[in-house]
Amino acid sequence: MLRTLALSCCLFSPLAFASPPELRTLTGTLHVVAGGPGDQTDPHVSGPRVAYTNESRGTSEIRYHDLRTSADTAIPNGGAFDFVSDISDGTIVFTRVSTSSAIYTFDVDVDAAPRELAPEAGSSRRSAVIGGRTVAWQDFGYTGVTSQPEIAVFDLDQGTLTRLTDDTFQDRTPAVSPDGATVVWAKCDEQGLRCDIWQARRSANGFSSQALTGSEGEESQPDTNGDIAVYASTRTLDGVTDRDIYWKPLNGGTEQRLALPGLDANPSISGSLVAFERRDPAKNDFDIVLYDLSTETLYAITETPQNESLTDLSVDADGTVRVVWTVSENGDFNVHAFTFKLDDEPGCKLAAVDTPSPEEVCARPGSWPLLAALEVARTSGQPNGVALGFAGTGEGVLCVDNGYNGEDSTAGWVWINGRELVDPSRFKQGVSLVATRAPLDGHNSLAALISGRPGSAFRLRVYGPPTDCQPVADIATGARVIPGRALKPVSSSSSAVSPVTFVPEGPVRDAGVRGCSTGGGPLTLSGVILLLACWLRPSARMRKGLRHSRRAL
Fold it and tell me: In this model, does residue 528 exceed pLDDT 50?
């Protein structure tokens, strides 16, 4: 037993016990932005305006919606296929496919018709994004190879087109900061498997380009507010492979991670807020969640049985926040939004709820959120051990499911934050559940050892206290109150990245200077139809539960 105790000391570093922070809430209003016939998908928001793709009866158009007035208008397209839009203030950019695939822009307050950016015969461009007066997109015309897209940026004021990348890698999913000075994107190998996040920052004469992440994981889906980049990364930590949300300062600094069980992806950032898609293992469907970097608080914007995805958000100077997303409803896809205002003071207190026994929580978790899950199996030789870090505060519950994916274990130990909560006396033949209360202090460590017969096993589950709350003051009729829970990020180590490369800004390239297309000439109409099958209708796969995000790998 002395050896076991010594091992447990090695597994954990000392942790300071912190008092629980005040509970914060969001109070706002839900909107149905678009719920008509067909599919309305891929919303993006800037201030009160939402741009989205509307697909119906074989057509596709870009529409924009004003959340203040509910006015909803289509951008004229003359029968072309328009899709995958983005918006900054009143300027919308999108992809238009006719006999080529081109990038168009439309000013809501000025233009009567959209105009093409840097026109080029037979162009092959897509995935346009905008920040300030800078537009970025994927361009296949430089190489003519569909597996080697490059990133190009266009200055709307100067009319200059700059090629940011020039290699054999797959450069994709660009995003632009609100001031237009920074572009981030994912750079993947030729097979599209090993991916890192890159950044390009504008100076007086051009862009300085550099990798932001290294070999620590497989990163994708970046976004930036101009100070930090946020992205999804798949990594194996302590023997567990998971996909989480990470962020890192653009000027250098410590990478941070949201340690949550389940799959987290497709982050968007505005100000200090990050919205992303989350699949909680307890629900097994995608919801939209929001994390406040400044207060270290997590909010569940949606908790429905439907799949919600493709989220974006916008924070105004006065603190008004608008979050938009796509939801699958009755076989179609619709666009919803949630509007609220940031409040410097917590707006609710814990509601009085009955405290169930640990056994009742383990059997019927209900509103108790799952914070961590871990399995341990016995082989032979020395006791087998596992460990996992997780976030959570308050009086939680530890559940040990004995015999899970194996035979009943007769000897085991479980620690949380170095405190032994379960010892071998709790493991008995025929006892399928061991449940106990588990004090949590913000950043927690869960570890376990199993001994006894080979083939025995048990599973660990840790639930946090429910965040049910009631408002301190009356709220407007129809408003929704979303309780938050404290969640401290976890620091992670970063590997070395590439040196800085300078890319001078250049004029619009000559329409006659371009790579060969995959067919040896300009993009043909049959090629356009093939591209549409890949780009335009993710909804068929989404209906079957196979899709995840337009910005997914």
Answer: no
Burial class (CB in 10 A: 0-12, 13-18, 19+), 320: middle
Mention every residue, 6+ apart, whose C-beta is less than 8 A from residue 37: 56, 332
pTM, two decimal places: 0.71
Phi then psi dihedrals of residue 197, to 5 deg: -95, 135
Residue count of the chain: 553
CB 57: neighbour CB atoms within 10 A?
Answer: 6
Q: Could you tell me if 517 and 143 are in contact, meaning their C-beta atoms sit under 8 angstroms apart?
A: no
How many helices and strands in the chain, by DSSP H and E? 4, 39
> What is the CB neighbour count within 10 angstroms for residue 274?
24
In this structure, are residues 313 and 322 in contact, taking their beta carbons and an 8 Å threshold?
Answer: yes
Torsion of CA 297, 322, 303, 290, to 10 degrees: -20
d(CA 401, CA 95): 52
What CA–CA distance (Å, rounded) separates 52 from 430?
A: 56
Q: What is the pLDDT, as a whole number, of residue 543?
A: 34
> CB under 8 Å to 85, separation ≥6 — which residues?
42, 44, 51, 52, 53, 62, 92, 93, 94, 128
The tokens describing 30, both together, are 């839900």
HSE-CB for 523 with a 13 A CA cutoff:
25
Q: What is the pLDDT of residues 1-46, one digit of tens each?
A: 323 333 333 333 333 333 344 578 899 999 999 998 899 999 999 9
The CA distances from residue 49 to 90, 106, 108, 227, 346, in Å, are: 8, 13, 10, 24, 28
Report long-range pairs for 167-171 (Cβ below 8 Å, ≥24 apart): 171/138, 171/198
**Rounded alpha-carbon distances, angstroms, from residue 463 to 156, 159, 313, 386:** 51, 55, 29, 18
Longest dimension (CA), the chain: 79
Cα–Cα distance measured from residue 428 to residue 411, given in angstroms and rounded to the nearest whole number:
8
Instruction: Look at residue 486 and give its three-state secondary structure.
Output: strand
Tokens linked to 397: 């519950």
Contacts of 474 (CB under 8 A, 6+ apart): none
Beta strands in 47-159 (DSSP E): 49-56, 59-66, 72-74, 81-88, 91-97, 101-107, 115-116, 125-131, 134-139, 150-155
**Is residue 345 over pLDDT 90?**
no
Q: DSSP letter for 378, please.
A: -
From CA 464, how far away is CA 392, in angstroms rounded?
Answer: 6
Cα 474 from chain centroid (whole Å): 33
| pLDDT tens profile 237-261 | 888 888 999 999 998 889 999 999 9
Q: How wide is the angle at C-alpha 147 spanned by C-alphas 142 and 153, nearest 5°?
A: 40
Tokens 């909560």, located at residue: 421
Higher pLDDT, 344 or 211: 211
Assigned token pair, 463: 């639930």
